[in-house]
Amino acid sequence: MSTDATSPNVVLQIDNLESYYGPIMAIRGVSLKVFEGQIVTVLGANGAGKTTLLKTISGVMDPEKGNIKMAGADIQHLEPDAIVRRGIVHVPEGREIFPLMTVAENIAMGAYTRKDRSGISDDEEMVYSYFPILKDRRDQRAGTLSGGQQQMLAIGRGLMSHPKLMLLDEPSLGLSPLLTQEIFEIIVRLNKEQKVTMMLVEQNAKVALDAADYGYVMELGRIVMNDSADVLAASKDIQEFYLGVSQDENQRGQRRWKQRKTWR
């Protein structure tokens, strides 16, 4: 696959990015690429800079230095609404739904940049086909939904903007293992069936690598490791520090990871 930044296969390219929270440098010279059709995960502990990275890509935070290109065009100084119109949608940590609005109203808000009424109607039905519980509760206030249902709503709302790239911040946060698996199964389906390229940050390394094609590992604002999801999952360092596998279990862990990707 071509790595030329102007190639249509490169959806997102970041070069030497630096971002600050006040005087504190939170992103330190980060460079990465996301290719069309991929699910790319960014792993790391709390404070590694993962959320800051997504906020900088989506325009919520301004970078101090570096370049962010969407399909070859610089976007690092655009406002968030202009970035949405370029095809990037951000599903933030904590979901940030509109709690007093109904499920249907929240989903409609995701299409605020669009004018094609028939297409919006079709996409609403598409969202409900992936999340049928939301259709059943379309007239219910969003704030009364369970945590898993709110995460479904946040993803569904994001889909309504017809994104070329969806940024997902900690989609498993606060969810049970069963709900986490359900959410990630839907993420993989959306990637394959709706051709939505995904970039997700996640502390649950196992579920993230199981879904992803490629991964980056962040520590203290820097990328310290990157490779295919298969290679990262088999890495002794990843297994020990992110998957909780001891050294003497590492070899068995590698055999187990070779048999994974059942969702695909």
Summarize this, please?
This protein is of the alpha/beta class.
Structure description:
The protein is built from 11 helices and 10 strands. It is globular and about 45 Å long. The strands form 2 sheets. A 6-stranded mixed β-sheet has the order 6-7-8-3-9-10, sandwiched between helices. α3 (103-109) packs parallel to α6 (147-159). The chain has helices spanning 50-57, 80-86, 103-109, 117-130, 132-136, 147-159, 177-193, 205-211, 229-234, 236-241, 250-258, and strands at residues 10-21, 24-35, 39-43, 65-70, 73-74, 88-91, 165-169, 197-202, 214-219, 222-228. It is 38% helix and 25% strand. The protein is an alpha/beta fold and 264 residues long.
Helix content: 25-40%
Mean pLDDT: 90
- How is the largest sheet built, in terms of strand order? 6-7-8-3-9-10
Structural class: alpha/beta
Apparent shape: globular
Reading the helices and strands in chain order gives EEEHEEHEHHHHEHEHEEHHH
Tell me the radius of gyration: 18 Å
Distance separating the two termini: 21 Å
The strand count comes to 10
Quote the beta fraction. 15-25%
User: Biggest sheet, open or closed, and with what strands and sense?
Assistant: 6 strands, mixed
Which spans of ≥5 residues are poorly predicted at pLDDT below 50?
1-7
Q: How many H/I helices?
A: 11
